[in-house]
Write a structure and sequence with these properties.
With 107 residues, the protein is α+β, with helices and mostly antiparallel strands. The chain is built from 5 helices and 2 strands.
Length: 107
């Protein structure tokens, strides 16, 4: 699953996904308080499965892929890999999808 996570990162032009703990630590270091931190990985699975089906169609039919590729911006075409693999990387906990609400204390 590590290779799948790396492919998702590359297709999204991200050098490396940081864990939520890194973001929380950085926020606290900057003086923020974490008001809410929720893991939404399970909640977005239906959407990710839908995108996965679309990505599979795109990748299975080269003639369709060529026609679609001519009409879409290149970054959307690169995201086909993300669409194919993201549901799996989240389901296996190789990556996560979180909402993080921060508060700046009033001085």
């Amino acid at each position: 699953m590590e290779i799948a996570a790396q492919l998702v990162e590359l297709s999204m032009n991200v050098e490396r996904f940081w864990g939520i703990d890194v973001f929380v630590a950085a926020a606290r270091k900057c003086g923020f308080r974490v008001a809410e931190c929720r893991d939404l990985s399970d909640a977005i699975q239906p959407n990710l499965r839908h995108l996965q089906r679309i990505a599979r169609l795109y990748l299975r039919w080269p003639s369709l892929a060529r026609r679609v590729t001519r009409r879409l911006p290149p970054y959307l075409v690169r995201h086909a890999i993300t669409g194919l693999l993201r549901a799996e990387t989240l389901a296996s906990n190789a990556q996560g999808y979180y909402t993080l609400v921060l508060e700046k204390p009033v001085c």
